[in-house]
Amino acid sequence: MTQVIAQDIVVAASILSADFAKLGEEVRAVDEAGCDWIQIDIMDGHFVPNITMGPNVVRAIRPETKKPFDVHLMIAPCDPYLADFAEAGADMVRVHAEAGPHLDRSLQLIRHLGMKAGVALTPSTPESAIEYVLDKLHRVLVMTVNPGFGGQSFISAQLDKIRAIRKIIGDRPIHLEVDGGIHVHTVPLVAEAGANVLVSGSGVFDGGDYAGNIKAIRDAAETARAAGAVT
Q1: Which residues make beta-bridge pairs with 175?
Q2: Catalytic site residue from 36, 44, 70, 179
Q3: Is the peptide bond before 77 cis (omega within 30 degrees of 0)?
Q4: H, E, C per residue of the chain
Q5: CB within 8 A of 224, min separation 6: which ones?
Q6: Choosing from 31, 36, 41, 44, which is the catalytic residue?
Q7: Antiparallel, parallel or unpaired: β 69-74 and 116-121
Q8: What residues contact 101, with CB distance under 8 A and at least 6 apart?
Q9: pLDDT at 152 over 70
């Protein structure tokens, strides 16, 4: 059985699946629909095979909600851009373990800029990558798809990694996030494994019933907890 955790379930709506033609409106809509965080995926076409947005877009949508902006930097190098995202209104920034030569230094800089710091692990990145930076972390993200595109299929092999990271975190106040293929049918799997932050794009935006989708995701996670897997 997965180690018991105390963190609340958090549903982060990934706007990678939003309608970019009306992004501000979409942010307001998922805020009103009950998401806890707004997830913003930044891709550079170099570290990952896609290009999305930059600090100016983050700045433009910042007035649309008071919900925390959880910015996932899929860029390399990451350090030169951290101050720009802080100034644009990011509350939390996650960098990939491979996104710079000195992960500890990147995390120090994120914290120095007043943001909460996190590390993202691709499916091929081992959990040992976080072992010596735990004192700098507010969150760890396990990617359950390969980074670069939304709408991919969930990689079930990552469940063992989630369980291993939950044990590494122990009773530290570090959120354990999952991102990739997170829908109602995969939520119980990752909740049982120990994740408490559920990042979902298509699972929130598909079908247009944002409030219903968010509630279904949250309820599925809470049901897994109530069953005794995670409490």
Answers
A1: 139
A2: 179
A3: yes
A4: CCCCCCCCCEEEEEHHHCCHHHHHHHHHHHHHCCCCEEEEEEEECCCCCCECCCHHHHHHHHHHCCCCEEEEEECCCCHHHHHHHHHHCCCEEEEECCCCCCHHHHHHHHHHCCCEEEEEECCCCCHHHHCCCHHHCCEEEEECCCCCCCCCCCCCCHHHHHHHHHHHHCCCCCEEEEECCCCCCCHHHHHHHCCCEEEECHHHHCCCCHHHHHHHHHHHHHHHHHCCCCC
A5: 187, 188, 191, 192, 230
A6: 41
A7: unpaired
A8: none
A9: yes
Confidence (pTM) = 0.93
Q: Distance (Å, rounded) from C-alpha 112 to C-alpha 143?
A: 26
How, if at all, do strands 92-96 and 116-121 pair?
Answer: parallel
CA-closest candidate to residue 56, choices 91, 19, 25, 84? 84
Pairing of strands 10-14, 139-143: unpaired
Q: Are 13 and 19 in contact (CB under 8 A)?
A: no
Catalytic site residue 91? no
Asked if residue 161 has pLDDT above 60, the reply is yes
Place of tokens 């990952």: 48
**Active-site annotation holds for 171:** no
pLDDT in tens, 21-67: 999 999 999 999 999 999 999 999 999 999 999 999 999 999 999 99
